[in-house]
Specification:
The chain is α/β, with parallel strands linked by helices. The chain contains 18 helices and 13 strands.
Length: about 400
């Protein structure tokens, strides 16, 4: 691609679509650029499903360019219809504030923030969107978007038959104004995004062209799916969170340690900074030796998100648990348990299952152990103790601390 950064991104499998690859290559070759990545505060942490464009932006910073991370305090009040069949629930101001703070914590794990020329900065689109009245917004931007163009977007087409609201229909105009604002304030010429945000991002470069007569670019990444082909995300119920108060470093490590064999090479390229020649060696391993690659993947991904100390502890905990050793480093759960408790109540209380019916099925299938004893009777009573070790299947351990 005649550009070192783009070559790195291409070889690692980040690039899904580009609005103008030749123009972007020329801009990168001309010197330092500024790019942005946005996320709405629908949760108080990023999750693994967010991390493909995040890791792409991390590489951009490593090559000397400046990232902007945008939290959508304004767009989060509307709800993005992209990739969804229903509208997002409205959030209170308190929840929005909590979620914005959580996203800032997540982003700080992946980028170096500061005042240097390639240091990341963080912005909130509520800071400029709240200054517009409805009349102001329509006056300034109403003629820049046509209804046929907006209806042509895939994110809109998906929702038309399900009662898309006027509120959601405006989402892409907000995102376009974000890009225009960042272009004017920071010289930001590139938006990175997941594949499901392509249409919204394209509206931004069209608005910049109309308002300023300037060229901007969009670079999208493919989406990460689970073993069933479902997009990984909070709404899908399969999220692995970045912030340690929602997913422990050990659980984060185990997620990558349990990567399916056919995804190991892709995950090594995307979620780690291991050199490509070493990834090629690891990916060529076969059979039981592939576990070496999975351990390297899990350690490297955890080290980026949680630091070296947490990655070492997670790896040691895994060795201890699966080697039959001391389980003192297993993830813990504090439980108010003043008396003996039914096994189904216990499993739901510590968050292993969403309902007693789910817990019952797992118990009857022999997939639960309490203090090393397999439990198959859903009426089993767990005796109160200061500490209870719960195991689900072969790979999930929770150390329950009672009080």
């Amino acid at each position: 691609m005649q550009n070192e950064l783009l070559n790195e991104l291409e070889q690692r499998g980040f690039i899904n679509q580009s609005s103008n690859m030749d123009g972007l290559r020329d801009a990168l070759n001309a010197g330092r650029i500024t790019a942005y990545l946005g996320s709405d505060p629908t949760g108080d942490s990023l999750h693994v499903g967010h991390l493909v464009p995040v890791m792409m932006m991390r590489w951009l910073q490593k090559y000397g360019h400046r990232p902007i991370t945008l939290v959508g305090g304004a767009t989060g009040r509307i709800g993005d219809p992209s990739g969804r069949d229903s509208g997002r629930p409205m959030m209170t101001e308190e929840v929005l504030a909590k979620n914005v703070a959580g996203l800032k914590k997540s982003y700080s794990k992946f980028f170096k923030f500061g005042d240097g020329p390639s240091d990341a900065i963080m912005v909130d689109n509520y800071d400029w969107m709240r200054g517009y009245s409805h009349l102001d917004f329509l006056r300034d931007f109403g003629t820049d978007f046509t209804v046929p163009r907006m209806l042509s977007m895939e994110s809109v087409k998906r929702r038309l038959d399900n009662g898309m609201t006027f509120l959601e229909f405006n989402y892409m105009t907000f995102q376009a104004v974000d890009f225009l604002t960042l272009y004017k304030q920071y010289g930001c010429i590139l938006q990175t995004c997941g594949a499901d945000q392509w249409g919204n991002a394209i509206m931004g470069i069209e608005l910049i062209r109309k308002k300023l007569g300037k060229e901007a670019f969009v670079l999208s990444t493919s989406l990460i799916t689970d073993a069933a082909g479902n997009k990984i995300g909070k709404s899908a119920g399969n999220a692995i969170w970045v912030n340690e108060d929602k997913t422990s470093p050990y659980e984060y490590y185990q997620y990558f340690r349990n990567t399916p064999d056919d995804l190991v090479e892709r995950f090594l390229k995307i979620f780690t900074e291991i050199p490509l020649d070493e990834i090629a060696r690891l990916s060529a391993l076969q059979g039981a030796e592939l576990n070496e690659a999975k351990k390297r993947l899990a350690f490297a991904a955890t080290e980026i998100a949680h630091g070296t100390t947490a990655a070492v502890a997670a790896a040691e905990t895994a060795v201890s648990l699966f080697g039959g050793g001391d389980a003192k480093n297993a993830p813990t759960f504090d439980l108010d348990m003043p008396a003996d408790m039914g096994v189904l109540d216990l499993l739901v209380a510590i968050g292993l299952f969403a309902s007693k019916s789910e817990a019952r099925r797992m118990v009857e299938q022999g997939g639960i152990q309490i203090n090393g004893e397999k439990i198959t009777d859903p009426r089993y009573i767990v005796a109160r103790a200061n500490e209870i070790m719960v195991q689900k299947g072969k790979k999930i351990f929770i150390r329950v601390i009672t009080h």
